[in-house]
């Protein structure tokens, strides 16, 4: 029963994390880390599959292994974040949503460059 719970949470986390690649508000990396955690406790087969996927390699592998991200990768990530959040802010219908998206972007930038160490 416990393994089934972890498998379901891992799959939901994986699907939501993949959606987060194109949806600016959904955090991709933490959800993929959660999927890896859940798969490690539910199914070795899913864990191996996730760790060998390109998505995991691009978004999670560096941080999961070294608890750091190379500065060059951070720069690539921040441009993607700014592009998608800029579009979202532009298209948001209400000023308070625009403000929330802007604040979220600012917090994300701070965390990426000040909290997460460079490799």
Structure characteristics:
7 helices, 119 residues, single chain, mainly alpha, 0% strand
How would you portray this structure in words?
With 119 residues, this protein is mainly alpha-helical. The protein folds into 2 domains: 1-67, no CATH class; 68-119. It contains 7 helices and no strands. The chain has helices spanning 2-19, 28-42, 44-51, 54-59, 61-66, 71-91, 95-115. Helix 2 packs antiparallel against helix 3. The chain is globular, with a radius of gyration of 16 Å. It starts with a helix and ends with a helix.
Sheet with the most strands, sense and barrel status: none
Mean pLDDT: 88
Order of helices and strands: HHHHHHH
Helix count equals 7
Structural class: mainly alpha
Instruction: Please give the domain count.
Output: 2
* Percentage of residues assigned to helices: over 70%
Radius of gyration: 16 Å
Which stretches are poorly predicted, pLDDT < 50 over at least 5 residues?
none
Write down how many β-strands occur, each being a DSSP E stretch of 2 or more residues: 0
Percent in strands: under 5%
């Amino acid at each position: 029963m416990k393994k089934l719970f972890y498998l379901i949470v891992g799959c939901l986390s994986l699907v939501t994390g993949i959606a987060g690649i194109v949806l600016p508000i959904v955090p991709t990396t933490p959800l993929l880390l959660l999927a890896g955690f859940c798969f490690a406790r539910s199914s070795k087969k899913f864990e191996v599959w996730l760790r060998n996927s390109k998505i995991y390699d691009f978004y999670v592998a560096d941080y999961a292994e070294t608890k750091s991200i190379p500065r060059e990768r951070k720069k690539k990530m921040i441009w993607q974040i700014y592009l998608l959040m800029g579009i979202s802010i532009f298209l948001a219908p209400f000023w308070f949503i625009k403000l929330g998206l802007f604040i979220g972007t600012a917090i994300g930038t701070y965390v990426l460059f000040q909290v997460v160490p460079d490799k």
